[in-house]
Amino acid sequence: MSSIVSLKRVAKRYQRGKQTVEVLHSLDLEIEAGDFVALMGPSGSGKTTLLNLIGGLDRPSEGEVSVGGQRIDRLSGSALARFRARHIGFVFQFYNLMPMLSAQANVELPLLLTSLSAGKRHQHALTALQIVGLAERAKHKPAELSGGQAQRVAIARALVADPTLLVCDEPTGDLDRKTADEILGLLQLLNREHGKTIIMVTHDPKAAEYAKHILHMDKGTLAPQAVA
């Protein structure tokens, strides 16, 4: 299979006053299309920084970041925003839903960057909600949903533009074990049945068991470890 994510000699540095802090060090990474990868490691190891670079939310200080064959580190801000909207879905720990909007309207948000009509956006959002089992809650606002339901809405939002890559930052970190397992089972289904490539940051070894592979990070470097 071909690589959907490719990082070559990637470094990321931040300036803190007069001090330069290097978070990632000349990192190389290849992730194949259709994989489900869990990123694990201690706090400060660079997991979220790496995820943000892959998702195009940040840019490397050095090196190349390619997603689906596209060098995203070279794109302009507007071109990168359009690329993210079409090709990458994001799922965060705290859902990041707009509280004044219904579930359906939240799911539609990424489609506002496309040329789809309002009717098509509506149809795509309902389809995404149906995939995550929440079509009947389409008109409910986030405050009227449980944590697990809110995260399902967030996953539907990530899916609505039919991206090939999902990046998930601690997607079950705010959920109880039972609900977390339901969300992880849904991600596993999206990987196996819908062909979505998934990269998930997690501190939870039980969550990582749902992935096909684990990448352990420590001090800005990577060491792969396969999951049976």
From TrEMBL:
PANTHER family: ABC TRANSPORTER ATP-BINDING PROTEIN, IMPORT ATP-BINDING PROTEIN. One of its GO terms (cellular component) is transmembrane transporter complex. Pfam families: ABC_tran. Belongs to the ABC transporter superfamily. Macrolide exporter (TC 3.A.1.122) family. GO terms for molecular function: ATP binding; ATP hydrolysis activity; transmembrane transporter activity. It comes from the Bacteria. This is Putative ABC transport system ATP-binding protein. Keywords: ATP-binding, Nucleotide-binding, Transport. The lineage of its organism: Bacteria, Pseudomonadati, Pseudomonadota, Gammaproteobacteria, Nevskiales. It comes from Solimonas aquatica. Residues 5-227 form the ABC transporter domain.
